[in-house]
Amino acid sequence: MKNGSLLPLRLHDVSFAAGGRTIIDGISLEIEAGRSTIILGANGAGKSVLMRLMHGLLAPTSGRVEWSAPERAGAPRKQAMVFQRPVMLRRSARANVGYALKIAGVPKSRRATQVREALDGVGLAHLARRSARVLSGGEQQRLALARAWALHPEVLFLDEPTASLDPSATREIEAVIRAFDAAGTKIVMATHNLGQARRLGDDIVFLDRGRLVERSPVDQFFSKPQSAQAAAFIKGELPWIG
Amino acid sequence: MSEAFGTALRLLADLDPKLVEIVLLSLGVSLMAVAIATLLGLPLGAAIAVGRFPGRRTLIVILNALMGLPPVVVGLVIYLLLSRAGPLGALGILFTPAAMVIAQTVLILPIVAALSRQAIEDAWREYDEQLRSLGAGRVQAALTLLWDTRFSLLTTVLAGFGRAAAEVGAVMIVGGNIDGVTRVMTTTIALETSKGDLPLALGLGIILIAIILAVNAAAYLTKELAQRRYG
To answer: Which of A45, B38, B102, B229 gives the lowest tally of CB atoms within 10 Å of its CB?
Structure first.
């Protein structure tokens, strides 16, 4: 493990409440480097909120979120996040990637090359000059991945990145996510899609109504779920099995 | 009436020098006021949109209310400030175009600031998480949003221009409607109408409406084009 690594990430009894409702309820968890972690659970289980707490977009109501190398405010981030609905700036595809590099403090002279590499990596080089907000949903999501890719993050959070995409766009996104994984980026992805969890995950964190119910390797999770909730969720999502 | 209209059209067609002078002064004063109000108002709107500070809501309510400032009241206040006995009397700019620029700037600054605050805050709601995820600080976010909402902001600025070009009360009081010095379209229309010289008033009225129409058409087209091009 290289010096100053962000991982492992430790959550100590983290809770989050909003509007009088507890969304995350006392979760303690350690996320290590390496194997891809899938945060699995039904809609409303708290997956998105948990990832936002990890990524620092939300502050826990109680408990602590600790990275091994704490981030300094204003320093370039070593973690990135791709959202369910990508937010594109009103400029060209390549300018969107360039913007992320600029904020990360990459000198202007090096940005063009890195932008090109990132767009190549997701197969969007031919759309580099196109305005980002008029691209299709799948293209925008790939662009969001390119934007993350250019930053070479140590950890990449993905919040249901294919939830609003068709099957072919989903395949393209999953291929890019695999490439991230192969390049050594730690993947932490929220999904409620069991097939996707199986295809991309090594390690399942299963949430039910804001609580961490089960954590196990992906094979074990699907063949021998340890909790009744997980078993019911797997059965509910795959009614043709069993 | 139709005779007055005919004379008005002839004044326009002949580019009557008096008329041209009035139109140019009007445009000069209002454009300068818009430029200053934009320079101050957009950063102010962006700061209020992304900033979190005590009294923010109160400030927004006040700013929104100031959009409806009566021009004559603005004129009166600026008049008192700039009059010889006033705190800024030493400047000696009362009854000059400079005073008119100041009055119109005060009048439209709340419009530019309040409308841009709204546009930027709406965009901020969409961009907030993404920008923070990338590590952008508040100042960086404000600058990004200013650029990303540029087409909405153009409409905002043009709304300010429309208000400045059309108002009569403020420039009348601080400018004094002096022939050849501070006489603009609206004050001339008011004066000439009361004198019964309808052709000049009517000619200026036509130009004023044409300018406002052209500005709004330009704003609309720009926004639509931008929408198609940038999404």
So the answer is: B229
Paired tokens of A177: 């996510």
Burial of A128 per CB tally in 10 Å (0-12, 13-18, 19+) = middle
In this prediction, residue A1 carries a pLDDT of: 42
Contact A41, A64 (CB under 8 A): no
Nearest CB to B129 within list A57, A77, A133: A57
User: pTM for the complete prediction?
Assistant: 0.89
Which of A103, A145, A151, A155 to substitute to test the interface with B, most B CBs within 10 Å?
A: A103
Measured distance CA(B155)–CA(B160) in Å, rounded? 9
pLDDT in tens, A12-56: 999 999 999 999 999 999 999 999 999 999 988 999 999 999 999
Q: How far apart are CA A197 and CA B140, in angstroms?
A: 36
Interface of B with A in 44-83 (CB under 8 A): none
Q: Please indicate whether, in this complex, the C-beta atoms of B140 and A99 are within 8 angstroms of each other.
A: no
Paired strand residues for A217: A203
More confident residue, B82 or A3: B82
Q: Residues B25-190: name the CATH superfamily.
A: MetI-like (1.10.3720.10)
Q: What are phi and psi of B115, to 5 degrees?
A: -70, -35
- Token match 């983290």: residue? A14
Gap between the Cα atoms of B174 and A116, Å rounded: 58
- How many residues are listed for chain B in this entry? 231
